Amino acid sequence: MSRKPYNDFLEQSAGFLANRMARRNVLVEDYVELIADLHAEGQEARQVDLAARLGVAQPTVAKMLARLTTEGFVARKPYRGIFLTELGQKLAQDVKHRHEIVENFLKALGVSPQNATIDAEGIEHFVGEETLAAFERFLKQSKEG
């Protein structure tokens, strides 16, 4: 077994770090995106709604909402549900934008709309900025060509 050059180890380490960071943010992004979706549908975002849509128990949602509140993404108003702060709205927009790019890219590759939506939900959290930009360029070129 040969040893990898030093730079390969740095690249590998950077990949692992990026993956760990993305994994840590997946739940935050999912919750913020769902809250924004509920509001866009004209619905309130309540703990019970989030639990039902995410398929988790209400105590799980309560714990995450406490985290989101502490980190400044949401504000909770008694008897009025959950609202995104300016920071939360920005994150929701960014996540939605990434999701749309990934979903459209997958569809352009011939993935069925249903599977593209499902797969984009996972990929959107892990795709790097350079790759996302390449997806966008591909989509733009596909429309122009």
TrEMBL record:
Domain HTH dtxR-type per the UniProt entry, residue ranges: 29-85
Q: Which InterPro entries does its entry note?
A: DtxR_MntR_Metal-Reg (IPR050536), Fe_dep_repressor (IPR001367), Fe_dep_repressor_sf (IPR036421), HTH_DTXR (IPR022687), Iron_dep_repressor (IPR022689), WH-like_DNA-bd_sf (IPR036388), WH_DNA-bd_sf (IPR036390)
Cellular-component GO terms for this entry? cytoplasm
Entry keywords, A to Z? Activator, Cytoplasm, DNA-binding, Manganese, Repressor, Transcription, Transcription regulation
The protein's matches in PROSITE patterns, at most eight in alphabetical order, are given as: HTH_DTXR
Q: Where in the cell is it found?
A: Cytoplasm
SUPFAM superfamilies attached here? Winged helix' DNA-binding domain
Any one Gene Ontology MF annotation carried by this entry is:
DNA-binding transcription factor activity
According to its UniProt entry, the function of this protein is described as: In the presence of manganese, represses expression of mntH and mntS. Up-regulates expression of mntP.
What is stated as this protein's family in its record? Belongs to the DtxR/MntR family.
- Subunit info? Homodimer.
What is the recorded name of this protein?
Transcriptional regulator MntR
Species: Neokomagataea tanensis
